[in-house]
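User: Fold this; tokens only.

Assistant: Input:
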Amino acid sequence: MGWLSVRATGRFQRILEACHYYVGSLPGVVVALALVTITVRVVLPLYQTAATLLLAYALLFLPRALVGLRSSIAQAPVELERAAMALGRTPVQAVSQITMRLAAPGAAASVALVALGITNELTATLMLAPNGTRTLATEFWALTSEIDYAAAAPYALMMVVLSLPLTLLLYAQSKRIIGR
């Protein structure tokens, strides 16, 4: 059996689902404040580092990624993996040639959803990013808080421009699934 043949059952699935439900239900500010507290009290050298910011992004956006990925992997029949292995493929080859190809549209949708979320994520970035880190969302926020809308407009435009291809990808994929 392939290493992903147990993908729809077991303890690992329950842990991922619990992560999705618990972390996905928390506002970004709660996750960011928890990480600030942990880094300040336990591992001060990690406070305001890229590693802590990346951990926050993983906690905030992993649930969003898992939704599309899990459902697309679950739709790939395990029997196809078993048939590929019966025809001489190794478990890794069976997973990469069968399951991953069938799951690719769901994985692309997950990547698009996560990228759209990260593009405009603000709270965790403001609290956890190293000093001097500038993102589109933080620059837009800083300029709009100064009521300098003309200077903030290019940042807003860039967020829209970066989001547009991903939105079109999701739209095209949903039309293809519906059959139009």
